[in-house]
Amino acid sequence: MSSTTKPVNQKAWFLVLPVIVCVAFSAILPLMTVVNYSVQDIFSPDRRVFVGTEWFAAVMRDEELHLALWRQIQFSLAVLLVEIPLGIALALSMPAQGWKSSAVLVLVALSLLIPWNVVGTIWQIFGRADICLLGYYLQQAGMEYSYTGNPDHAWWTVLAMDVWHWTPLVALLAFAGLRSIPDAYYQAASIDGASKWAVFRYIQLPKMRGVLMIAVLLRFMDSFMIYTEPFVLTGGGPGNATTFLSQYLTTKAVGQFDLGPAAAFSLIYFLIILLFCFVLYNWMQSLGTSQKEQGHE
């Protein structure tokens, strides 16, 4: 028997070429530039000295960096602990069909359409005590609320702002996961007399695992790189209460013009995000595997 092989059309690579060019200019070339800056001491555009890993060692000894990293980890974990359950609860309460479902989807997605700097400005106004909004009513309730003077109030305000802005993203992803579940699963659960909690635990939550993994990774990466909203709202203060890693990096690079340490720090920053995303991804994968094993048992 003679076997025939299907010819491969190599011209398909030309369709991918624009993507490769865009990625090269937007990611690879800037990354190589940062790597180049991280191993040099730059005095002027024409004068630079190779210093090896000196800037990396200096950055790792920076106490302010350690504090900013700790604040960033606390904030990102708080974001995940609040926004993921809240987004799931919001998705479960949304209408599944009809015009009400469409209207609710539009209303839920409204905050996602607001630019980041505008979100900071909105919460600046929202937190003022001289306007009958959040700050005013908190002070009327007996709380000396001041996001500009109290570090704890500033931190919680930034967290509330992020929850208000990005929980709808989690809700929309979870809603899409819920709508992809066939009705046969619910019918079988109804015949078996399963409770709402059993339906959620054994049907809805496992079926949403894929979209929830995307939501966790997206929200972690976004929260770990947050800059615009807290910068507009608090400027990183009071003190350094809301100075997260991205703002610390910007101050180092733009404010102090320390390009070498800033480049070294940005590479470490990049590796930290990759490490945490890798850990989160594998943890959620292991949870999904254990749930499948329990289901087979």
Question: In terms of topology, how is this protein built?
Answer:
Elements: H1 13-38, E1 40-44, E2 47-50, H2 54-60, H3 63-93, H4 98-109, H5 116-126, H6 134-140, H7 151-179, H8 183-192, H9 196-207, H10 209-224, H11 228-233, H12 245-255, H13 259-296
Antiparallel strand pairs: 1-2
Helix pairs in contact: 1-13, 2-13, 3-7, 3-10, 7-10, 10-13, 12-13
Could you walk me through the main structural features you see in this protein, from its secondary elements to its overall organization?
The two termini are 48 Å apart. The protein has helices at residues 13-38, 54-60, 63-93, 98-109, 116-126, 134-140, 151-179, 183-192, 196-207, 209-224, 228-233, 245-255, 259-296, and strands at residues 40-44, 47-50. The protein contains 13 helices and two strands, in the order H-E-E-H-H-H-H-H-H-H-H-H-H-H-H. A two-stranded antiparallel sheet has the order 1-2. The chain is globular. It has 297 residues and is mostly helical. Helices cover 73% and strands 3% of the residues. Helix 3 runs antiparallel to helix 10, helix 10 (209-224) runs antiparallel to helix 13 and helix 12 packs antiparallel against helix 13 (259-296). Strand 1 (40-44) and strand 2 form a beta hairpin.
